[in-house]
Amino acid sequence: MRYRPLGTLSVSEVALGSWLTTTRDRQGSVDTLVRTALDLGINLFDTADSYEDAQEALGVALRATPRDDYLISTKVFYPYPGGVGGLSREHIRASVRRSLRQLGVEHLDLLSAHRFDDTVPLHETIDAFAELVDEGTVRHYGVSEWTAAQITEACRVAEEIGAPPPVANQPQYNVVWRVPEGEVVPACQRLGLGLVAFWPLAQGILTDKYRPGRPPPERSRGATDLGRETMGALMHDVVLDRVELFGRLAARRGLTAAQLAIAWVLDRPGVTATVVGASRPEQLRENVGGVGVRLDASTMARIDKIFTGLVHDDVTATG
């Protein structure tokens, strides 16, 4: 494993996410995944207050691990049971109290605004994050899927009120979704925010397990109702044909398609780490194989050629 700086933190280049795969009803599998992650050198575990009972399951899985051996990243914005959502001071503080309790920890290493809230003054949101940092309850804060203008304004507000600035941005970013490159990446580089990219495998599309002209494999995300909803834009033969070529390119370089996709993200300017999801230890081991892979210019050019016409890079696009 390799590590990169994020604020005062040293984070593993691959982080383990908990959306959909970390639940109390499969605690045994979660425990195994977390142990595997730690054995592989992963020290960053990403979750959110709105991921059903993911925080509780993650907290149980990490209970026997010394607190200094791992970092917790969670997010606030969406309503959870009993919560109203948003980025008001009241909701942020209530969410943090709930997250600390569910995770069984005394502090959060990174707290991110899951989305932007245009109903609450940005000064209030930034001041609430700053108070938590000052108290030691949160070590750093960041944002997720904010625009370049929103990130820039957050940093301006932080400077204006004497608050620490955000240190991280979590955008969707992968070979076919390059929207951040237009404005967000340059803004983050200029302002000193590290990118912690999610969906590097495009929810599994870039693993090359979905074949053109065939139904999704049983028990895969693409075979579920949620998968059909969130992956529908890419689950077409014209895309899967290109992914098949991507897989062949990876094989010629001694990699799996997933490893090449992760290596591509980690090779992009401004990226600090990427968040992967996994339901089995072997998936996690495979993903970590993308760490430390250097892609030469010819490989990058070939990747661009494979996905010509399919790349989403319009800054007005939404995920």
Automatic annotation (TrEMBL):
The lineage of its organism: Bacteria, Bacillati, Actinomycetota, Actinomycetes, Micromonosporales. It holds the Pfam family Aldo_ket_red. It comes from the Bacteria. SUPFAM superfamilies: NAD(P)-linked oxidoreductase (SSF51430). The keyword Oxidoreductase applies. Keywords: Oxidoreductase. Residues 14-306 form the NADP-dependent oxidoreductase domain. This is Aldo/keto reductase.
